[in-house]
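Residues determine shape. Next comes a sample protein:
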Amino acid sequence: MKNHPIQINRDTLEERVWNVTPELPYMANLCWMNELPDGMFPWHWHGEVELFYMRSGAIEYCVPGGQQVFEEGEAGFVNANVLHMTRAVGDVPSVQEEHLFLPSFVYGRPGSAIESRYVRPVVRSGGIELYKFDKGDPAQREVVQWMRAAYDAGARAEEGYELVAREMMSRVWLALFRATRARQGKASSGAEDDARVKRMLAYISEHCAERIGMADIARAGMIGERECFRVFRRQLNMTPLECLTAQRLSRACELLRGTDRTVLEIGLACGFCSASYFGKVFREHIGVSPRAYREGR
């Protein structure tokens, strides 16, 4: 249950969530963020909702239009189909227990009263992308206990853990529904920007090994370069070229740890024009040379 394989479609940025199946549309996973390249899980989205509890350290969640840090002992929610990325924050190892499941895990049969009254208003609301449960609110304080009970039952492979998980996730869902009721139905004013950013990030992911620039990224979003820059700033708090560099470095980290290709070959394969430039950028962002990163130093 530790660090499930990352399977992100480079064309769409949709993540295929490991072990969520029609037979059991739910999984629990222990995520060690510091073991990922640069302590970061890249931009992606998935049809499953995500509930998580911070076991230790801190993680920053970024969604279009905002960021939020979750510290040890805190719990949160990411809605289905929401573009997001996460990164470790601080020096303490960032470890989270996460639950990913299709909404049908809670409501059962499509068209049921549970789906229409309690699930659909949350999932289809453009106003709920990322939510932090309030530890100081007695009505939400039990959320962490329910999440941990579901995780522990699965970790121990208890008989009936699937039923325990469904019961606990249903309790959490009711708390989420009540806590976010006032925000439900408020459509996101940045819906058009969200779609543009998804297209442009998908283009960056697919073409990061090539010599691309602002004009190419803007063209993928069907907007001008100035508006492209503004959209990235508004939605991601990054520039398009910063996103391009981050994607190239993420790919380089995967190749350094997962292949025997030379540093020069990897640098060129990830869109850097020379070994010296690759080493310079890598050191600035990762803190060590590509060779030292490969050796685990």
Summary: Residues 161-180 form the longest helix (20 residues). The chain is about 45% helix and 20% strand.
